[in-house]
Design goal:
Strand 6 and strand 7 form a beta hairpin. The chain is globular. Helix 1 runs parallel beside helix 12 and helix 4 packs across helix 5. The protein has a seven-stranded mixed beta sheet with strand order 7-6-12-13-14-11-15. Strands 9-2-1-10-16 form a five-stranded parallel beta sheet, covered by helices on one side. The two termini are about 20 Å apart. It is of the alpha/beta class. Among the domains are: about 130 residues, NAD(P)-binding Rossmann-like Domain (Rossmann fold, 3-Layer(aba) Sandwich), CATH 3.40.50.720; about 55 residues, no CATH class. Helices cover about 30% and strands about 20% of the residues. One of its GO terms (cellular component) is cytosol. Belongs to the UDP-galactopyranose/dTDP-fucopyranose mutase family.
Length: about 375
């Protein structure tokens, strides 16, 4: 006789948990989803302010070349035709991103691909013999002084909270030069924002699923575990094991959002600020993600900072030390008592940076493995 109320308890109502919940429910499983926040959706949650869907936890632009994933999300929502074309601002001058012919014209006045290639090679020439030992040397080796100083140095130092000379060279493996006049940041086949915002996607995924928000799993973990045959945990893997080997490191962010009594502030959804002395890395103007036409606008300034237990983990620091620590927790997850009861999934449990399509692909792969 079954002693539990649910087949699966899912800890975390973010995208990974929501996809697994949908698939498990559709296969006849009884599921309970809990989340410590007061809303579902995790970091893709949107807050409606002045009729504008505000990306509460930073910009999320859905993009993928995975046909399976694209077909999957389109079962639940329709996507608009937003194309991510950020602009960089440095000393009151604007530069298109990613690095393309528009950028090269703005930097150097070159007008043909060959002129751009010749200029880049000339910029790189003084550093051709470098064996890069840090990010600064790597960027100079790959692109030269102008690109580094204007578009890379300050922004990256703000992101990482340290001088570029103290950031590992492997952070920049290559600089993606595009010798066409194309400001589309992504190379993926499909791209867009859900019509009506990301909450529409989360709500569709969780339709008919029992969800309780505002619950911290760790307050009564033993009690919650007894509710279900299996537990899918999507939070921080080190926290699950009470950080017994030490805490995994992250970079975090905080956001300052304001409503402006004007119809447009910067004319683009994303503007990066690449000067080191400007404390934020970018400003988002949310209405432009969905081609809004309201009389007011909402902007968010994004500030990187060190992670602590009191703020949100955003970017894992996947260096040698943290990866070794992760391996210990992953081994513990396999060998701990009742290990067969617990499943770990999602960006925090796997200590990986996932784009949204990666998250969905991984969740669907888990359902194939688990729900057989």
């Amino acid at each position: 006789m079954k002693n539990t109320q649910y087949d699966y308890l899912i800890v975390g109502a973010g995208l990974f948990g929501a996809v697994f919940a949908r698939e498990a429910t559709d296969q006849g499983k009884k599921v309970l989803v809990i989340d410590k926040r007061d809303h579902t959706g995790g970091n893709i949650y949107c807050e409606n302010i002045e009729g504008i869907n505000v990306h509460k936890y930073g910009a999320h632009i859905f993009h993928t070349s995975n046909q399976l994933v694209w077909d999957y999300v389109n079962r639940f929502v329709t996507f608009n035709h937003y194309v991510n074309s950020p602009v960089a601002r440095y000393q009151d001058k604007l530069y298109n991103l990613p690095f393309n012919m528009n950028t090269f014209y703005q930097l150097w006045g070159v007008t043909t691909p060959q002129q751009a290639k010749d200029k880049i090679e000339a910029e790189r020439a003084p550093y051709a013999d470098l064996e890069p030992q840090n990010l600064e040397e790597q960027a100079l080796f790959l692109g030269g002084r102008d690109l580094y100083e204007i578009l890379i140095k300050g922004y990256t130092e703000k992101q990482w909270g340290r001088p570029a000379t103290q950031i590992p060279a492997f952070i920049i493996k290559r600089l993606p030069f595009r010798f066409t006049f194309d400001n589309n940041y992504f190379n993926d086949t499909y791209q867009g924002i859900p019509v009506g915002g990301y909450n529409a996607l989360t709500e569709a995924l969780l339709e008919g699923v029992e969800v309780i928000t505002g619950i911290n799993y760790f307050d009564k973990a033993d009690d919650y575990n007894q509710l279900a045959d299996k537990v899918l945990y999507t939070g921080k893997i080190d926290e699950f094991f009470d950080c017994q080997f030490g805490a995994l490191e992250y970079r975090s962010l905080h956001f300052e959002t304001e409503v402006l009594d004007q119809d447009s502030y910067q004319g683009n959804a994303v503007v990066n600020y690449t000067e080191r002395d400007v404390p934020y890395t970018r400003i988002l103007e949310h209405k432009h993600f969905e081609f809004g036409t309201s009389d007011k606008t909402v902007i968010t300034k994004e500030y990187p900072h060190e992670f602590s237990k009191d703020n949100e983990p955003y970017y894992p620091i996947n260096d040698e030390i943290n990866n070794a620590l992760l391996a210990k927790y992953q081994e513990l997850a396999k060998t701990a008592p009742y290990a067969d009861k617990f499943i770990f999934g999602g960006r925090l449990a796997n200590y990986k940076y996932y784009d949204m399509d990666d998250t969905i692909e991984a969740a669907l792969a888990l359902t194939t493995q688990e729900l057989v």
